[in-house]
Amino acid sequence: MRGKYCHLVLRRRRGMFKAIFHTSAGLLTLLSVLIYDPTLAIAQIAPTNTATISGSVSDSIGKPITHAKVTISGMKSASTQSDVHGLFVFVGMPFGTYQLTAQESRLGTVTRSLTVEADTNVAIVYNAAIVNGLKVIAQVGSTVSAQFNVTSASVTQVSPIANAFQGKTSWRTILEQIPGVAQAGLGSGGSNVFGAIPDSPFEPVQISINGALPYETAVLLDNMPLIGGGSVSTPGTGTDLSFYPLNGFDSADVVRGPGANAPSIVDSIGGSFVLHAPGMANGNHYDLSLSSDPYGGIVSNALVAVRWKKLSATVTYGINSSPGPLNNAGIPAYTLFNPSTIDGQSFVCSGSCAHVYPQDPNYVNGFDGFQSGLLLCCVNRTNAWNQHSGSIALAYTVSPSVSAEIFYAGQISQQSQYLPSEVVSFAPPAGYTGSLTAGQYILSPDNYTFQPCLYLASSSLLEEKIVAQLGHGVLKLAALQNRGWHTGSLTTPTSANLQIYGGGTLNGMPAIFNGGHYDVTFPSLGSISSGQTNNRDLLLSYATPLGENLHAGASFVRSYYNMPQSSNCTFDGFPGFSQAVPAGISQTTDELRLFIGGTPSSKTSLDLSGYFVNANYHIPNPSGFNFSTYTSTNGWIDSRYTYTAPRLGFVWRPTASVAIRAAAGGGFAEAPLGYLVGSNCIPQLNNMLGIYTVFTQNLNLQPEKSFGFDVGTDIQLHHDTVLSFDLFHTNLYGQFYNSTSLTGTYLGLPLYTTKEGNLGVSRYEGILLDVRHDVSHGLYWSLSSGLTRGYVVSVPPGFYDTATCTNCANLNVVPNINFNGEFVASIPYAQGLGTIGYRWNPRKYADLVATYYGNNNTYFRPAFVEFDGHIGYPLMKNASLSVTFRNITGIYGGTTQLLSADNQLGAPAVSGPPYAQFGEEYGPRTVLLTMNVGF
Questions:
Q1: Rounded distance, CA 511 to CA 350, Å?
Q2: Residues 717 and 854 in one domain
Q3: CA 342 distance to own-chain centroid
Q4: Half-sphere exposure of residue 318: CA atoms within 13 angstroms, side-chain side
Q5: Which candidate, 494, 450, 176, places its Cα nearest to that of 330?
Q6: pLDDT tens, residue by residue, 515-574
Q7: Are 854 and 895 part of one and the same domain?
Q8: Residues 69 and 169 grouped into a single domain
Q9: How far apart are CA 860 and CA 920, in angstroms?
């Protein structure tokens, strides 16, 4: 079956087509996680079990207060004084509840409780107001103006929910402005297999940190992995963030480098993207945001936060409804099938113009059979979409030492799916006088069916968590059920009125079509696909202080993942096709972490962790394996892999305004499940090359292992100005790469077999620099830059040779050449971001942002700079208006991957095969308006 249907997408990798199976996941209860088969699941440990509590002391107008006495007591007690910039810091504080006291002789003293579960910045602002005779701390636990990292890893924090309430709809708008972080998957590696409409719900976003590929970058919710969640990417090759609601997560940490307090070493070669649910609400709060989208649609988000004694609830809900860029636009079309009748007369195509399936023993090689083509125009199309998303976070303080939380987030999206461009050959018959000349033509996406593929995708995740102070330590128990699923359905109407170009036979008589309009009927076609990704995690951790200067603990995470899928197709005159991936194919990982750390002095902290990993794949035995049914005559087998690695982290604080960090350690990346089980497809035809290809399993595939280091510093140049610098270097052993070789023939044509294997040594390295000046009023600015490189150092012996072919396979893998899209993701040589603006108050501001995408960027474009502008203006006490001027210069401002020169019958094809790496579009130049109302 050709990959033109909604249920199966073919990606061309290194000249070959590879099957990408859609997957999704299951929603289970906490009880089912606890009693399920012990081969269940991975969860990740807390990113750190001690915290650094830092902050600033200032007066009501923001002037730093020096020599204020700041004391903290609880799990550990300490005191210090604010420095000349009003800054203070406490290093190595175990998780738990503390009393924070600030004392200044002129302004007074105040004591507040503070719950610490992560590194915390505290802004202490003395206001004129007096509560119970004391000056009050206006903000506790809030981030200071410019982020200041105090961990052994490089950490950048972003707020997904804040971006959603600014009218943003895509995770890419957050990630693409962090140097060293790339987002893969815009168009499946630039191959146009899955067209990417900017800002659509189905624009795939997979994160790559410090060069590491998407499957080497963990996406976690409170340190438990979110596996799968997407249908665009190959199962296991990176979590597709587009499946998860942007408005559901309070914050997210981009954790880079091999810090000893890393959430996990599993699938975390370059780092982890850690999502956090909303915590305990401090009081009642209500927000509403209404925004436009680039295509004239509406984006709306609402938030309700309620606090009642020991119980708090935070609820978010959002709607994104858009007509999309193809709103009843006429686009070229050709069909997989010959018309049955034209103006009521029976039709037979001249020559070979019908699509021919590989199953057909009478197949004649050609460009989709369009040697004497029949082209049709034009079909009204729309890519309208609707998306509903939201979350519910409940938190209850059982006692001063015990809290319980439940978090649910879900999203459902529907869109007329957007499919790839196609190159066809058109040879006008004798007597043809129309406007089209002989040659190959590029036709627009979705131009081979007359009704769009209606695509539905959704996700649902549920987290249940208990945190308790047990003895002197903190115990955490959490469970996560993460499910994604998708359904694609296609029913082709049997009639349409179209322009027809080319030749054929009507009622047995030759007929020439020069572009006139005709009523056309076609054979009926119906197809449907569905899939799931089921991911269940369990987390148990305990951390405790050991005396005044030491802490220790352990954590255990179990994660389970499977990807059942089915698809089928029925149509007149052709054999049916169906396929199914059984739910029994699964992946289970356990990870144990033992850690100990301390503060050898008041200015240093040292942490050491040991990680122990056990991974298991439950798959059909490859001996006697049947690709069409995913079954084996020899039953099932379990493939197990174990790995152990240490990580060491060190932080030195010579002053409260300087942190120097270093970290080193190992990492482990599992083979994506799809790599081990292969494809149940029959060989796929590559018309342009006249060959068949098939993707098969490799049970000898070994996990990737790595060792890397990161050194860096954060310097608080002023209360509101922070400089960060990082240098990282990672060696990766046994990186996955698919190797292709000629293995025989199929239906008389050469058959090439592709399977995943292990390379020798690969490397990621780079330099990151960030400086930002952020103030509540006045001039603010920032400048970020990153130089990143990923490349192969060595390959296994015989890598360029096969039994039947010498120096003709894998030649595009060249040591010391930067990865350039062959792994689904590009690694940009350089990235940059510059911002300059002026803030009259937090709600009244204007700025200009320039984003630089260097060569080898994920848009598959030459290096370019994109400019955005923002204006915020308060309308009244509780309402404000913001304006975004997006892509001011209009660079790469197309909205879709329409490769036609106009809206007629395409343009002459460019040289090279179809599905070449055409550049992706950034998105249209537009002005977006957002209204925010809050109480």
A1: 9
A2: yes
A3: 46
A4: 37
A5: 450
A6: 888 888 876 666 677 778 899 999 999 988 887 778 888 999 999 998 777 666 555 544
A7: yes
A8: no
A9: 6
